[in-house]
Amino acid sequence: MPTSEALRLARERGYDLVLVAPASKPPVARIADYGKLKYELAKKEKEARRTSKAGLIKEIKLSPKIAQHDLEVRAAKVKELLQKGFKVKISVMFRGREMAHVDIGRKVLGQISNTLQEWGRPEAPPKLEGKNLSLILVPNKNA
C-alpha cells in the first residue's frame, strides 16, 4: 500500500510505521509500537550475549616439573572444558632459575596438546609472557 495510507492507518491505531527492510523492492514497513519493538530487540540481544560462550577462556596452570599423573589429571580437566565449548589457556609457570629451561615447558605444552588433539587444537604457537609460557586451545568443530 502507499506510504501515506500506511502512515494514516498507523496513526489511527495509535502505533508507528516501522521500516523493516528498506533495501528491498518495494521497501517493507510494519505497523508496530516502536518503543516496544526496540525493547524486545534489546532483550533478545542481551539473552544472546548471556548464552554465548565464544569469548570465555578458562585457564589451567602447570609447572615445568609436573608429574606424569598430574599432567594426565589436568589433561582430563581441559578435555572436559573443551567438550563444553570453552577456549582453554594452558600456562606453564616458571619460578626463579626455571626460566633458564623454557624448553622443558615447551615439552610439557607439546605433550598436553598432543594428548588433546582429538578435542582441541592450538590457536597459535606457545608464547612466553613474562614468567609464563602459555598456549590457547580452541575446541574442534567436530568434537
**CATH architecture descriptor of the largest domain:** 2-Layer Sandwich
Strand tally is 7
What is the 3D form?
rod-shaped
Order of helices and strands: HEEHEHEHEEE
The Rg value, from CA coordinates, equals 27 Å
User: Strand-residue fraction?
Assistant: 25-35%
Low-confidence stretches: none
Q: Kindly name the structural category.
A: alpha+beta
CATH 4th-level superfamily of the largest domain: Translation initiation factor 3 (IF-3), C-terminal domain
What is the helix fraction of residues, given as a range? 40-55%
Mean model confidence by pLDDT = 88
Q: What is the CA–CA distance across the termini? A: 51 Å
Assembly level:
single chain
General description of the model:
- The chain is α+β, with helices and mostly antiparallel strands.
- It has two domains: 49 residues, Translation initiation factor 3 (IF-3), N-terminal domain (Ubiquitin-like (UB roll)), CATH 3.10.20; 83 residues, Translation initiation factor 3 (IF-3), C-terminal domain (Translation Initiation Factor IF3), CATH 3.30.110.10.
- It is built from four helices and seven strands.
- Strands 3, 4, 5, 6 and 7 form a five-stranded mixed beta sheet that branches. Strands 1-2 form a two-stranded antiparallel sheet.
- The longest helix is centred in the first third of the chain and has 18 residues.
- The two termini are 51 Å apart.
